[in-house]
Amino acid sequence: MRYFVLLFLLMSSAIVRSQEISVIDSLSLEPIIHVTIYNEERTKSVFTDLEGKADISTFSENEKIYFSHLAFSTSVFFKQEIEKMNFVVLLAPNPNSLDQVVLSVAKFGQKRDNVSHTVVSISSKDVVFSNPQTSADLLENNGPVYVQKSQLGGGSPMIRGFATNRLLITVDGVRMNNAIFRSGNIQNIISIDPLALEKTEIILGSGPVIYGSDAVGGVMNFYTIDPKFSHSEKTELSGNALARYATANSEKTAHFDFTIGRKKWAFVTSATYSDFDDLRMGSHGPDEYLRTYYVTQQDGLDVVVENPDPLVQKPTGYEQINLLQKVKFAPNNEWEFNFTNYFSSTSDYPRYDRLFRNDNNIFGSAEWYYGPQVWFLSNFGLNKRGNGEIYDHAKFNVSYQFFKESRHNRDFGDIIRYSNTEMVDAYSMNFDFEKDFSASKLFYGFDYVFNKVHSTGKEKNLNTNAENTAASRYPNNSTWQSMAVYANYLWEISSDLTFNMGARYNHVLLDADFNELYYDFPFQEANLSTGATTGNIGLNWKQSDFLKLKLNVSTAFRAPNIDDIGKIFDSEPGTVVVPNPNLKPEYSYSGELGVELNMKKVFRIDLTGYYTSLQDALVRRPFSLNGETTIEYQGEPSEVQAIQNAASAHVYGIEFGSEFFISEKLSLQSQLVMTEGEEELDNGSRAPMRHVGPFFGNSHLIWQNKNLKFDLYTEFNGEIAFKDLAPSEQSKDYLYAVDQNGNPYFPSWYTLNISAQVKLSDNWMFTTALENFTDQRYRTYSSGIAAAGINAIAAVKFSF
């Protein structure tokens, strides 16, 4: 049938006397929209419209005309040749188009060979095959990202020795980091539904200049499902439905998404619901991880009871729902409007590491749980294409986000439950532009971010149900603002050599007023006005099809936020962190060198070495308040600490990846990551950094046919001895196993796993896995919860 379509196009074009051409996919024979058509000097350019058509009458008869699209191979024709083809141009798809297009470095699509940063891409197909329960698991399963967990409802990524508010998260280009992202482990990433993602890109190392504060160790960019237009007058419908069950925590997940496409309108709706029970750990491993006893209430009293199954981590279960709605409108070839609403919420979920901590079965906490983690994103965006004087492609985004989180804790035997609730209203606006020149591109833009923090505290008497206000975690009604301009220049010196450089200036404002009702601070307010200039220089050299080299040097910064300057909380029992208004930004200086060896159909090897220096690092250190080093917090004498610009740090490491093609259907893929890092202590000595994880990696033996795929793989971690743990980790003996000297240490571990996927028909796909089938008992580094033991997964997907 498709050949009749091609014949019809050829006949129609012969009849039409104008110089309107049709550009179509040589395989599917579908029209290709947004193809850039230009001459050799780039003095003329047009774009194909929603029907894949464009008028080339402005081009002369003897001009070379280039047809460029990121998903297709670039083609060049003389206008006379196009006339002989009856004004129908066929473009061949790039078989690796998804992997070859990078969106995250300049907010506009770029060829991967032109990007000097290390970028890891994860497709929606990878998500379906790896069956992650949350986006934290998605990162852990598919990239050189290490994930820490304090509870089942969580996951705090670590990249190249940095974590939490030194990593930036974006969703559809919108900054997710807000003014209360903390230096302690954060769980916000689980609000992103992995089943609603079209693509994920992870920038390893300091972020490019298009990103502002927090992009010190890396950037994680999540792109949700994009609605597709119809190429005809007929309405096109498509969608997916997925159901999944996993045995380790009795996961029950249901998901659906569907798209409605018209010529000028497109809609997508997605919804996912998950229910997780208490997580079962493995049978073989350290006894320190076993859950032998736990706290419950009987007749209104806290009691310690024996766990009938010490492998089950009680309590850890929770529920989550994610909803997505997108609308896209394109009135013509130049303008495109997008509107997105995203909502995510969990149930209450226990903080397991606080409930697990005990001394000879004497528990400190009877209750410690997070209230529902709520996130709402509303984003309006427009794309403008055209051959303008100062831009060829422009993007505008304005967004609103609402965050809500709360903490609730009660000591064993106490009748008072303490609660803190935080809400953040976050507004942002971005203008981004792209200008094409003959052999180069200029990306530039500016952005504005405004956050307002609402924070309250209360105490509740469980006997009388009486409630009283209490100290809030943050100064209520505090604000954080960021304004920035940036420019990035990409120069294709030759077909084998690319150079890029960029610069950004960021200015940050912070205002907070402290309530004198609960604490006698020597200050009443905190005001911050500070600027930061950052930049990057990169070089890509494709010496041959076999050898590629890349070099990147960059700087990044993190400005103090409300969490740094104004937080009051107990980091651990017996310690309280208090505000410190005298902070300034921390800066990082990074360099990386990468080598790729690629012998097609035989092997591919990637090796990257990197180094980062962090200056004026914001770290938690002992502090005094009105000359006092100890104050009472929630009824307990607590050592005073505060965030301070008190350290420098150095991180370096190697990332290694390889793929060997044993046969046409069988390949062996491996990935290894080694990171070392140390920071300066108060006495001038140096110690390991807290977020530098162990040596870790994975190996996959993959067999793939047209409709069938098998993956036999292992994941592993190296050991961290007691002397190599960060000082803050050495004091958390409840997180670790015990060595022969009675000291906490992180033991090495491995898992063996197998997964399979079969495409039963054009509509049905079945995926199954048996994870950790040797039933190992282990925790990832710095985690307060043991990972899943043997875990059988079954998922079925229906597509139409």
Structural notes for this entry:
- The protein is mainly β.
- It has eight helices and 54 strands.
- The strands form ten sheets. It has a 22-stranded antiparallel β-barrel.
- Strand 48 and strand 49 (708-717) form a beta hairpin.
- It is globular.
Short description:
The protein has 800 residues and is mostly beta strands. Helix content is 7%, strand content 55%.
Give me the secondary-structure topology.
Elements: H1 2-15, E1 20-25, E2 36-39, E3 45-47, E4 53-55, E5 64-69, E6 72-78, H2 79-84, E7 88-91, H3 97-100, E8 101-102, E9 110-111, E10 118-123, H4 124-130, H5 135-142, E11 146-148, E12 156-159, E13 162-163, E14 167-171, E15 174-175, E16 197-204, E17 218-224, E18 236-246, E19 251-261, E20 265-276, E21 279-280, E22 293-298, E23 301-306, E24 312-313, E25 318-329, E26 335-346, E27 349-350, H6 352-356, E28 358-359, E29 362-363, E30 365-370, E31 374-385, E32 393-411, E33 416-436, E34 440-461, E35 467-470, E36 478-492, E37 497-513, E38 525-542, E39 547-558, H7 562-566, E40 569-572, E41 575-577, E42 586-599, E43 603-622, E44 630-633, E45 636-661, E46 666-680, E47 686-688, E48 696-704, E49 708-717, H8 727-730, E50 737-738, E51 744-745, E52 749-759, E53 764-771, E54 791-799
Parallel strand pairs: 1-7, 14-17, 41-45
Antiparallel strand pairs: 1-4, 2-3, 2-5, 5-6, 8-9, 10-16, 11-12, 12-13, 14-15, 16-17, 18-19, 18-54, 19-20, 20-25, 21-24, 22-23, 25-26, 26-31, 27-30, 28-29, 30-32, 31-32, 32-33, 33-34, 34-35, 34-36, 36-37, 37-38, 38-39, 39-42, 40-41, 42-43, 43-45, 44-45, 45-46, 46-47, 46-48, 48-49, 49-52, 50-51, ...
